[in-house]
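Exercise 7b. Backbone tokens:
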């Protein structure tokens, strides 16, 4: 169950800033933007693309010409000689892309697999299907983003309602939610200290078009809402009688990220610091009971830990996709750890998707990249990523840094 052959070169990855939907990336085709970003990044690294043999593209919100997805993205980034595939698994997409790449390395299928994850929640598609037997032949329609946020077709609940179910089960209060939300905001602010010193360790700007002839670089996250204790306390629960306000949940966003998965020797060759090996150790998945999505990271994390032969106390950093702060409170409660991230197990230090937004496809990838950089600063250790995804599912991954 433990992986032995899949490595990531230190600095062999990047994430763009995330931009709140209807921000600077709102009119970019996310597949094209991801490909162009990778092309610029390879040029800056002075890396050729010829050594790549496969591209795994993660994307969850359809874009124009997505039928061609991965081969198209490969051509845009300048690696038009390689084939690929697309993975869509809602909020755990990045982790599953990395795991599929790692399995390819493990079995000898790939030598150098580029994983690239992207999404644009802005201006998402409105889809219609023919319905000739409907009244007057009226079409069936769907807004890809909002209709699915507002209703799981399996259980009929909004996503926030599934989080409220978990809050009730864990006896979690609004005061606890507000307190940990403020802590998560403070952790994100640590990444902005000293002129964004931490973010600049991994962040690569996105270039977007503002007119036919002009472009601009998106160099910082857009749309992060400042948090204060008083401000959070004033916000009413979004669901009457609940514990979650608009302050203690994430927002849709746009962005992309990428990581190279390769062999131990190639990772060492390409690493910005060969003394910091990064190995993918294990993966976990789960499906919790219907209508309890926010609980799903717990069994997924337990599976990943078991597969790696490790315990939660062996972790030196934990990063989560936490669309609702309830996710982290419940996870800490069930795993017997501190939620604040101030102890030996750093929990969402330097930021998380609840604060800087959630473009689905690249969210977990950015989380993992931040975790790698945190452990590089700490001198190495084990990183656990865990998160929930649509359909009461969850994913988890463990990496060893150093």
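Sequence design result:
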């Amino acid at each position: 169950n433990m992986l032995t052959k899949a490595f990531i070169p230190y600095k062999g990855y990047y994430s763009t800033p995330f931009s709140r939907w209807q921000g600077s990336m709102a009119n970019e085709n996310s597949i094209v933007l991801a490909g162009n970003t990778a092309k610029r990044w390879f040029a800056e690294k002075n890396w050729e693309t010829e050594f790549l043999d496969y591209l795994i593209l993660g994307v969850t919100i359809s874009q124009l010409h997505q039928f061609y997805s991965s081969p198209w993205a490969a051509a845009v980034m300048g690696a038009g000689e390689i084939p690929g595939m697309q993975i869509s698994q809602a909020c755990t997409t990045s982790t599953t892309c990395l795991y599929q790449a790692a399995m390819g390395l493990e079995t000898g299928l790939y030598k150098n697999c580029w994983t690239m994850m992207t999404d644009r929640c802005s201006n998402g598609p409105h889809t219609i299907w023919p319905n000739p037997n409907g009244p007057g032949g009226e079409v069936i329609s769907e807004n890809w983003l909002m209709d699915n946020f507002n209703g799981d077709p399996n259980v009929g609940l909004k996503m926030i309602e599934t989080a409220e179910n978990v809050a009730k089960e864990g006896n979690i209060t609004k005061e606890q939610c507000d307190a940990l939300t403020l802590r998560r905001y403070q952790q994100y602010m640590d990444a902005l200290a000293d002129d964004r010193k931490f973010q600049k360790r991994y962040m690569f700007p996105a270039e977007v078009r503002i007119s036919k002839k002009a472009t601009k670089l998106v160099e910082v996250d857009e749309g992060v809402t400042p948090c204060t204790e008083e401000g959070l306390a004033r916000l009413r629960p979004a669901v009457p009688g609940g514990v979650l306000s608009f302050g203690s949940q994430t927002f849709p966003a746009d962005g992309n990220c990428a990581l190279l998965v390769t062999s131990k020797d190639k990772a060492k060759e390409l690493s910005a610091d060969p003394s910091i090996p990064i190995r993918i150790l294990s993966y976990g998945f789960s499906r919790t009971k219907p209508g309890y999505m926010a609980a799903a990271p717990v069994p997924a994390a337990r599976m990943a830990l078991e597969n790696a032969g490790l315990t939660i106390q062996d972790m030196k950093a934990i990063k989560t996709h936490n669309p609702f702060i309830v996710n982290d409170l419940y996870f800490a409660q069930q795993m017997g750890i501190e939620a604040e991230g101030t102890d030996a197990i750093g929990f969402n230090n330097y930021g998380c998707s609840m604060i800087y937004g959630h473009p689905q496809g690249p969210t977990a990838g950015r989380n993992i990249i931040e975790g790698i950089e945190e452990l590089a600063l700490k001198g190495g250790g084990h990183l656990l990523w865990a998160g929930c995804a649509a359909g009461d599912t969850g994913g988890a991954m463990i990496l060893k840094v150093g």
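Instructor comment: The longest strand covers residues 253-262. The radius of gyration is 20 Å.
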